[in-house]
Amino acid sequence: MLRATLKGMAARKARLTLTGIAVVLGTAFIAAALVLTASIESTVNELSEERYAEADILVQAPEPENVSEQLAPAGVPGETVAAVAATDGVAAVAGTVTDVVNAIGDDGKIVGVLSPTMAVNWGEMSAARELREGRAPESDDEAAVSAKFVADSGLDVGDTVTAYTTASEKTEYTIVGVYGYPGGRDSLSGGTELAFTTTAAQRLVYGGQDAYTAVAVEAAVGTTEAELIDRLAEVVGEHGQVRTKSEVTEETEHQTAEMTGLIGNFLLGFGAVAAFVAVFIIANTFSIVIAGRLKEVAMMRAIGAGRGQITGSVLIEALTLGTAASLLGAALGVIGGLGVARAASSAFFDTAEITTVVPAGSVIAALAVGIGVTVLSALVPALRASRIPPIEALRDAAKADKPITGITVAASTLTAAGAALITLGLTERLGEQNLAGAAVGVGAVFIGMTLLTPWLSRPLVNLIGLSWSWSFSGRLGRRNAARNPRRTAVTADALMIGIALVTATATVLTSAKASLEDYFSDNVQAELFVTGPLTAAVQASFDPAIMDQLRAVEGVEAVADSYYDIAMIDGAERHVTTGSDLDGLIALFGGTVAEGSVSDLREDEIALDAASAESAGVGMGDTVTVLFSRGEQAREFTVAAILSDNDNTGGWYVTQTYAEEFYTPKPTLAIIDVADGADIAAVTAGIETVIAAEPEIGVHNHDEYLAQVTVLFDFAIIAIQLLLGLAIVVAVIGVVNTLVLSVLERTRELGMLRAIGMTKGQTIRMVTAESVTIAVFGALLGIGVGLGLGWALQQALRDEGVEVFAVPTEMIIGYLAAAVLVGLLAAIAPAARAAKVDILGAVAYE
Prior knowledge:
846 residues
């Protein structure tokens, strides 16, 4: 049996190769994901160790206890650093001052929006910097910059750069030097950097306070690490935390693992999709192959082969295929993962040096998935083959497929049960299990619809095929696609699953985006918005003095500015807003005051929306304690106004008196209401003139502002389109495999058609029509299932603000076009093979 199995495989190399490609893709992505994440983690960890290469112990700022303290972190006081330096057993100390900074390039825009720019002091032990041009900063109005900053900003030695943080005013600095890092790197971790004198860096980061972000400590000879830690802990006290370099490195490694985990999970998603879709392709291939070997299997049974031997022969074939494909996929994945890691290291970490790591687990996981998927997929066809009776060897007629009544009834029941669970969950009739019940229902509907595909295939395929039934070839192609519902269904499922998943996700994201746009358009009364890029690491702010100039622009009806903070209110983190005109700010955002008034809000009074009041358990006249991000002490406020619930005006409000204690002590947003009848273009031009001195901010209309707010949705949609691309690649393989096997199966039939006058062109068009019909059938099913699941998810998220159900029409049109392309591409090889069938040989084919 083993020899017979291997000989049979050797005779079907082309078919098995097509099937194996799907396994190769899945295992390659899995191996690549694990190799990539391991290599990047190792590289980043080594780079982070270079920051404090000569340090033994680090004294860092106190651990933030809440978000408010994270926004405006405290540093290690200068007097504490002096005490550390004077501690017995300390050989040397070097204080580091660092934080994210906004630096403006020669185009007036913020440099490094997605990859932030860091401000540092030119230190001795913090990170090895190698001057390439000029010198280090010597006065407080000078800066040296990293080579990557020069490339990204367009500035160079002798130019002036403007920089600021949330704690400092905009200040101009003369660039006096350009530096790089060991290994010829232009940056240490992919970002840009500016180095200042310690005093200048402290002015930027801590508003001029004598404080340090971290202090690197080198132990004197003869002093143990444990002894020095104990001494330093007494000296530092509550002003910092004493940690070993290994502890800091471990924390960095954990953060790196979280970052690379996102990349790895994304690639693992590709592998999961490929492996899942491969199940259908493999099962379909083995089913068709066994159907074509009906007499062969029956003859083997007749000469004494047992059911177990027949099952084993099919599983050995699957095991051999899975092992070979998985080994190839794992090898390609390792090579690809290392290649992508090098590219990512060069692009994001700016280093030609990368620590390549190939974990044994990456290869083992890829092999386990590939082999497991292949063998499990072949199990049902193997069992079916073992049930073929020996009498089949004596029959000339082909055995008809089994009826699909049983699976149709089961699938319908499962789909109906899933729909019922979704309904009960969305109508909150399942108690505490509403969300879980709805989620189970979604899964049941998805599986049920997949199992219902054979029942749906004949009517839908016939309907789809009407589009090209005007020709003889088109009619035959349509009938060929409909003649075997099971085979057509399993082939279409490969494409259906991928499109259903991405359609559902795209529908939810599009609905969320549409809900935000709809709510924004209905409630916000302003037409223009003055703000910086919302993706900047430090939100761009502007001089409050320009507010009066904005109000004076011709055609401006009203202007309101907004300051933002996260404060601790009665021990809980709360969003706090202020502005020079709270009444105008709330009104322009479509909010209303339900109780009290914000017009005459006193310095000891606070306002909030109804939802926040309910959450905090407070009402009119109650007292709350507030500590702002940069506040030195908590203050008591009395609730003087409660706003009606509105997503745009949610949170707490205080007078502008406390802006200096906010995380960002300047306005980050101005909203402008244009007078009726005024020319918006002219008003926009007037505003641009006013803010010309603030190049990092701009004026945006509704659409432009919303585009910034919803940019993350766009990135997510692009990501799922990539998943669709993979599903399409695998689907092409599935359709090609099915058509090639179908052509072989119908060799005599094709020969007869050619014998009675069918031309090669008609044969090609017939196979192409069949291919396109199957692909479009799968796409339509996927779109239908995806829209249904997307609607269910949107309904489940209504309480989270996703109130509008929006269909991603353009994407759906693209999916259908992609399905037609899949059909055309998949038909190329099978159609060419069918057209080359030898007429006499085919008629005599057995």
